[in-house]
Amino acid sequence: MPVYHPPRIAASEITPREIYMSRRKFMGTAAAGLVVAGASSALAAPLAGSPSTFSTDETLTPKEAVTSYNNFYEFGTAKSDPAQNSGQFDPLPWSVKVDGLVGKPREFGMDELIKMPLEDRVYRLRCVEGWSMVIPWIGFPLAALLDQVEPLGSAKYVSFETIVRPEQMPGQTGFFQPLEWPYVEGLRLDEARHPLTILAVGLYGETLPNQNGAPIRLVVPWKYGFKSIKSIVKISLVEEQPQTTWKNSNAREYGFYSNVNPEVDHPRWSQATEQRIGEGGFFSVANRPTLKFNGYADEVASLYEGMDLKANF
Amino acid sequence: MTVIPSLPRRLHGPSIWALYVIGLCPAAWYFYQGATGGLGVNPVKTFEHLLGIWALRFLIATLAITPLRDIAGINWLRYRRGLGLLAFYYVLMHFAVWLILDRGLDFSSIAGDIVKRPYITIGMVCLVSLAPLAATSNNWSIRRLGPRWSKLHQLIYPVALGGALHYLLAVKSVTFQPFIHIALVAVLLAYRPLRKPFLGWKRGSKPSVARATR
Ligand code: HEM
Predict the structure, then answer these.
(1) Phi and psi based region of residue A280 (left: phi greater than 0; alpha: psi -120 to 50; beta: remaining)
(2) Which terminus, N or C, of chain A has the lesser number of Cβ atoms within 10 Å?
(3) Is B65 part of a structural domain of the chain?
(4) Domain map (residue ranges) of chain A
(5) What's the whole-model pTM score?
């Protein structure tokens, strides 16, 4: 007869008391306890933000679609891979190291980041592949984090890095690894400080599911989705334009800026239209025109005044 | 040399019909899934991709018949026509899904894509090249065209190459699935120029099996 052995839990996996307590606090409805959502991380917990005027009132993409149709190559390249293969990813404990050309380099624990002034931001997301969603993020402006480390005058760019954890990220192991790890991204400092640029810690009223970049990710709504780097462990302020993963993989097709632009086609496909996921159906695909800067031109076009957007794609 | 027990002659005809029925099952199944919400949140793209991949698989199977006979002594020549026609049907369905379900018959964007997107241009050339092969895949045409029939049907080689190239250009990064399909096409095409020397060598070393038909 098989004997039941309680699972052994490594000391490192037990959440320190202070983090646990602070997590309890932000969970608000403590009675609900840990909400275990189907595809989401087992740690998904309710999370609330204050409303923001930057939010769009377009119809939200259903949560089921937002959490099952993802590009997160660390978990595999198929759209369904991140939801299917991220179950054993442990987003906590977590910390983000902020360093480089700053007056006060330091590490931020997730307990601290989750207590930043959180806002609801309903943003359009446009993937470089030609599909789009409308996602209710919860997060805070990246500028609020940058202010705390006091960037030096010499800092011109911000670079970001995703975690490397092959033992929990099957896409980072095996023969066919489509990209080089760690995944890295970058923004110009003024782009990074723009009020639309946020670090998201949740979506749809809960902490981020693993497949969407738990526990903390960037969201830059006027750029193609791959700029919005997931599961960030490091942010550095630098002087030179940083390396970015997709540009390293194919510089002809993916540029540093990667602003959404219907007038600048991908070398292999058109960017003039996009398919809104979750709308329409098998017999009626919801294609719509793509908007310049993903519809955020009023807010961000001035960042690129005088720049040739075809050359700086 | 023959490894597989051969099928009784009277079952040859029915087995060919079975191939068509079985071969069309993936398309029917995926269509049913797509129409009933079983293909995820982007069912049209998924359906389109699956039809494209199955088209390439049938092209690969068509190209595999000759080496299978040369190397393993398995004679499945009777299935080659069916496999080739299935490849054509899948390309046609792949194209129709793109035209109707994906692009919604928006002819200006369709025409623009065909001339401007190299991978779609290549796909289109492949489809157009497959049409005369499909149209002449019958005994009457073989008799009528005589030696020209074989010449015409050598178009299958550039079509397979084009299909693989089209796949390579359609994906964002080459992962396991595209790699394995493209590699199979490459190996099967590379075999063609090696075939004569190979058969010659085989005849030399084992005279009894020398039955190199075309
Ligand atoms: C021999 C002919 C053809 C073969 C073997 C073939 C095969 C494929 C394969 C394997 C894919 C990739 C599926 C994936 O990404 O998983 C693909 C994608 C695609 N094919 Fe074809 N194809 C052929 C002809 C055509 C034609 C005639 C058209 C339309 C004019 C076409 C349009 C497309 C499009 C639009 C995609 C990309 C869909 C997307 O990701 O947006 N193909 N094809």
Answers:
(1) left
(2) N
(3) yes
(4) 11-303
(5) 0.82
CA distance B170 to chain A (A): 8
- pLDDT for the residue numbered B173: 82
Q: How many CB contacts within 8 angstroms connect chain A with chain B?
A: 65
Looking at the 3D structure of chain B, how many domains does it have? Answer: 1
> What pLDDT, in 10s, does the model give residues B127-161?
999 999 999 999 999 999 999 999 999 999 999 99
* Residues B113, A270: C-beta atoms closer than 8 Å: yes
Confirm whether B4 is domain-assigned: no
Contact (CB<8Å) A179/B35:
no
For the stretch B79-124, pLDDT in tens is: 999 999 999 999 999 999 999 999 888 888 888 889 888 999 999 9
Q: Between the CA atoms of A15, A16, A22 and A25, what dihedral angle is there, to the nearest 10 degrees?
A: 60
Q: Which residue in A has a C-alpha nearest to residue B38's C-alpha?
A: A282
Ligand 1 centroid to residue B123 C-alpha, Å:
6
Residue in chain A lying closest to B168 (CA): A268
The list of chain A residues with pLDDT below 70 reads 1-43
Query: How far from each other are the two terminal CA atoms of chain B, in whole angstroms?
Result: 19
- Which of A68, A176, A281 minimises the CB distance to B176? A176
Q: Domain for residue B3, yes or no?
A: no
Which among A45, A62, A41 is positioned nearest to A230, based on CA atoms? A41
- Contact check, Cβ <8 Å, B117/A69: no
Instruction: Tell me which chain A residues have a C-beta less than 8 angstroms from the C-beta of B101.
Output: 282-283, 285
pLDDT in tens, A213-229: 999 999 999 999 999 99
In a domain, B1, yes or no: no
Q: What's the CATH code, domain A11-303? A: 3.90.420.10
